[in-house]
Amino acid sequence: MSELTAEDYAYRLPDYWIVHEHKSGSLFERLHQAYVSRAIEIIKASGAKTVLEVGCGDGWNCGEMVKAGLDVVGIDWSRNAILYASMFVPSAKFLRGDLRDPEFLNQFPDKFDALALIKVLEHIPPNDCISAMINIATPLKTGGTFVLTTPSVNSPNDPPLHYQHFTEEKLRHIAKEAGLIVKSIEGYGDVEAERAYWSRMRWLENSLYSIKPAATSLTEKYHRETNLQNTPIDRCHGFVMTMTKL
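and the corresponding structure tokens:
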């Protein structure tokens, strides 16, 4: 894959706001809610008051953090993302910049209690992951909480803007090389349950017909019976990794 640029993340629409405001009950919506809410839970439990979200996108995650009572700053390299975030979450502060650029660090003279890197690491070229993590961790207070979420190799790497998906071992290696201490790694989502769901759903909704009541019932059953947080590593969709800086 050629290296992605800010233009690849145009955010022509505020996608996450549209998904969640529509409240479709889709697997994507529920999965996103699961790892974002868990990340916020961890940050709140740490006693943090201020948080920097790096790669904040259209600001939906930041909006949830504000609702949780956190003082939030978001940074992203997409101009449209920052415009949407500023519009939807006026009580947070948003800045445009490249997290790999050491100059972006000059924008944060005051250290943060916590950092959030939610579904960003997979968008960073593999050779840049360690240096990016070092940069990202610089605005974090000593002893502060750094929460990262990213897809697992259990989930196929087919999204067009993902360089790679991760194993627990690879995440631990990146954290160690970046000088960070891993406190915990949890799984989110359940790829086996997802596969079972889609194998049934294709008979209820496809390009030829849709049996809406049955499809709705299947989706409700999936959400009711499937745990999307703290799932086993060998079948999780992705990881929630908590780190700290010495």
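(Above: one complete record from the training split.) The longest helix spans residues 27-45.
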